[in-house]
Amino acid sequence: MRLCTTRMTAPRTWTVELRPQPHGTLLVCAHCSKPEPLPGRAARSEALAHLARHARCSLLPEHLRTCQCHERGCRWHPRSRGCAGPLLLVLSRELGGRQWRLADACAACAASMKEACVVPDTALTVRRHSHPDRASRRPGRTTAGQERELVRNMLSYLAASLPASVSAPARLLALQCALRSDPLGHTDVPAGLTRGMALGCIAALRQELQAARWLRPTADDAWDRAARLTDPLSGLPGAKARSQAADWALRVARGRSLIGMTAGTRLTALVLLAHTRPHSNDSAADAHHVARMCGASLPQLIEEVRRLAEHQLLAAWVLDAVTDDLSWKLPDLPHAPRRP
C-alpha cells in the first residue's frame, strides 16, 4: 500500500476585474460564477470589499499559508533571488486599476512586485485564544521596530489606496485616521491632536479625503471629529498597537528639528525613518516606492531629500542610477521618539 504524499493545496489568491459597461461597472471575480453590477463611484471600494470577504472566508493559520507568487512560478514580478522573509497579505493593482489582486506572498516577492502594497494585519488573520497566564506576561508596549513596521506598512497601503493627487498634509491626516480606526473603519481623531499636527485647515483636508472617496463623515456635515473610512482593508490589529504606532508617527512628524518645514518635508522624513531599522542609521529602499509613499514624483522626492540634507537631518544620501535605489544615512535623530 502506497501512502499519498501529495501536499494539500491552500490557495489564497483572489482576483477581481472592473469592466466598464454602458450602464455602469461590472465586477468579475475569478471565484464567483456570476458578475456583480456596481455603481460607478463605489466601484473601487466595492472591489476591495469583495476581496476582503473572500479573505475572511478563507482564514488559515500561518503554518498552512504559502507564497502564492512562488506557487505560480513567481510570474507576478521580475526575477529575484527567491522566496525569503515572513508571509504577508499583498494587494496588487494591474491594468491601470481595472484589476485588483489580494494574495499571500513572502516579503521578498512582495518587495519585487510593482504597484503593490502590504495590507496590515487585520481581522482577516486567525486570532488564537491564548492562555490567561501567557497573555499576562506580554509586554505592555510594542517595540520600536514593530511601531516602525506598522507605520511603514500603512504608508505603503495608503500609497496604493489614495490617488496620487492627494496632498502631503492630507496623507499625514489619513495616516492618523487609519492608525486610530477600529476594524470597522470608524475613526475619532481629537481636535486638539489635529491642531497640534500643524497641517492647516483640517476641514479642507477632510474634504480632500472625502473627494478621494477614502473618508466620509459619520453624519451629514459632521466633520468635527468622527468619520468612517470607506476602505475595508485599512484596519490594524489591537487598539493599543494602533495608538502606539500613531503616537510614534505623530512625534516624528512634528519633532523639534522639523518645526517650520512643510508637510511634504515632514512626510518624507517620516517615510525615511519608517524604513530605517532601529539602532541603525543607514538604510535603502526603491526610490519610486518611497516617492509613491510621499505622494510625489521622483524629482520632487529628490528635492525633499536634498532639503533634509541641507538642514543636517540626513548625513548622506545617494540615488543609484542603475537600480533606482535610494540609500541614506541618518545622523543623530533628535526628532525620533525617545522611549521612556
Total E-strand runs: 12
Q: For the CA atoms, what is the radius of gyration?
A: 21 Å
In DSSP terms (H or I, runs of 4 or more residues), the helix count works out at: 12
Low-pLDDT residue spans: 1-8, 122-139, 333-340
Main sheet makeup: 6 strands, antiparallel
C-alpha termini separation = 64 Å
Average pLDDT metric: 77
User: Which structural class do you get from the secondary structure elements?
Assistant: alpha+beta
The best one-word shape is globular
Helix content, binned percent? 25-40%
Percentage of residues in strands: 15-25%
Give the oligomeric state of the chains in this entry, treating copies of one chain as homo and distinct chains as hetero.
single chain
Q: Give the SSE string.
A: EEEHHEEHEHHHEHHEEHHEHHEE
Describe what this molecule looks like in 3D.
The chain is 36% helix and 18% strand. With 340 residues, it is an alpha+beta fold. A six-stranded antiparallel sheet has the order 3-2-1-5-4-6. A three-stranded antiparallel sheet has the order 7-9-8. α5 packs across α9. The N and C termini lie far apart (64 Å).
Features:
alpha+beta, 340 residues, 12 helices, globular, three-stranded antiparallel beta sheet
Could you give a quick summary of the protein structure above?
Helix content is 36%, strand content 18%.
